[in-house]
Amino acid sequence: MPGSLRFTFWIATLATAVNAVAYALTFAERTSYWLLFSLPLLFLVWPGIVAQWRRVPRRNLRSEIFGNIPRWMKISVIGLLVFAFANFFICRSLNDGAQPQILADGQTALVARGGALVRSLDAAEFRRARAVQFRMMSGFFVACFGVAALLAEACWMKNGPAMADRKV
Description:
Number of helices: 5
Shape: elongated
Strand order of the largest sheet: 1-2-3
Number of domains: 1
Strand content: 5-15%
Distance between the termini: 19 Å
Oligomer: single chain
Helix content: 55-70%
Order of helices and strands: HHHHEEEH
Radius of gyration: 20 Å
């Protein structure tokens, strides 16, 4: 595997694992906002994936000689995309379509887009609402980095040098 593709694959895989752990921790109402530092990695990984896919000859994409993309990889990509959409809508409904905020008077509440107060929250509800909001973001990161890692592996299967590793 070329160094640039290997680098992209490992960064995407590690970022997927870290974001999955952060996602799981939100069920215990633990948020790790340092995870926002993985956002620039998203802008590093995806251009790398796109650049690698552009280097794959178009005839290799359909050719079975250069290695089939396994069914589990295709199902995983579809599953991650469905997970991203379902996670967004479920988290949005759990917070009533609003964001938890601390108001100017120190009160915590769910606030809708126009600034309308949806409902007031006590400390435990506010922590739970912030965890749900963080779960929405970390779930999106899990899907983005997971799909990138799977695409990097599929790109390797469809590149010419991968033939040495495949059975025809």
